[in-house]
Amino acid sequence: MYRIAVAFVLGSIVGLAVGSPAQRLQPLGDLFVRLLEMIIVPIIIFTLIMAARELSPANLGKIGGQVVCLYLATTAVAIAIGLGVSNLIEPGSSVTLTSGSVNTQQAPPLGEQLFSIVPTNPISAMAEGNILAIIFFTLVFGLGMTIVRAEAEPDSAVRSGIDTLFETAEAGAEVMFKIVWGIMEYGVIGVFALMASLFGEIGIEALRAYALLAFSLAFAISLQISIVYLLVILRGLVGASPLAFLRGVKEAMVTALSIRSSSGTLPVSMSNADENLRIDDGVYGFSLPLGATINMDGTAMYLGIVAVFAANIADVSLTLAQQFSILATALLASIGTAGVPSASLVMMTAVLTQVGLPLEVIAMIAGIDPLLDRLRTMNNVVGDLAVSTVVGKWNDAIDLTAGVWVDDPSEGGSVPSETPTD
Ligand code: ASP
Fold first, then answer.
1. CA 45, CA 126: separation in Å to the nearest integer?
2. pTM to 2 decimals?
3. Ligand 1 pocket mutation, candidates 296, 342, 348, criterion most atoms within 8 A of CB
4. Buried b (16+ CB within 10 A) or exposed e, 20-58
5. pLDDT band, very low/low/confident/very high, at 201 (cuts 50, 70, 90)
6. InterPro entries from the xrefs (predicted)?
């Protein structure tokens, strides 16, 4: 689906050329976002039930442990890269502090968030789109199905009822992927509209004022993607072609860049993992919804970069101990950040307060956030997919002889990809 990438570039050019009238296209983009949001809850439920069919509690523990450890490790590396790059580039050193109204909304404490993973009412968790609570309930329900099925008599009504439920979930997931395909067809218009509206809104001036900040983030993200995901994870741990991986996840990347939401991109990431990367639903059905909520490498990295930016503006030099404390706070804050547009502006209060930096910085960068948010959301989504790929490999739950893996010119393959979105 190169059309969507072309739409992305053309939309950006039109936005810069036309200026603020391009913002009138926003509703066309909002429609794209709504369509994706519409299917987040059903797609998670169907694929997680399918995942539960393949996961014994022991397997779930093993895969879950690997996923969570890798999520934490990649996020810590991302923050270290962000701090390293921003210490080098020093964004903010030529900017003076302007006071503006600050969003002092406090981030909810992590303990409270952990507690809310267990829903008191699963239906209201679904209605509210509380992804962690939905994951928890669906997994418990799916595991319950597996256990009851194993205990039931072979020809009993209970066993056939559960088989029907599993088949229904499988059919439901297939239908959802078809709907994703349809939404991505409209996405060509949606992405064009979103990008035109963005650049129509922020214009070239804001870009100039915050060029170093944007450059630091873009540079750090390109290091994270090329070294951590492509070189270490794809080439090193999976032993597969990084280019094939990138081709396999491009729709998810462009969608994340366009809609600024990891959760909103989830249906597309799942479709890419299933159809292109050929990861088993037993892995991605669990790892991707979890990643969209807790694994935010781009966000964590950005929190670190903004801390250095704020220190430069305030003319404070950060000690090594302070940088470590930024790393720890940014790691926790990124886990607590919701996968929705500009969510990290709220979490930033925690990081800046931790090291006593001025919160006014948040007001200063809020104007450029619609642009920076896209970059970090794209990084967040690619991180989830890279970790899912290696966990798939470790658990024999990925088919590296099909999908996008055999369609890589640099690897000499010749079988065409079956990507439905191409
Ligand atoms: N928009 C980001 C996401 O959905 C979160 C953030 O960094 O604001 O992944």
1. 9
2. 0.84
3. 296
4. eebbebbebbeebbebbbebbbbbbbbbbbbbbbbbeee
5. confident
6. Na-dicarboxylate_symporter, Na-dicarboxylate_symporter_CS, Na:dicarbo_symporter_sf
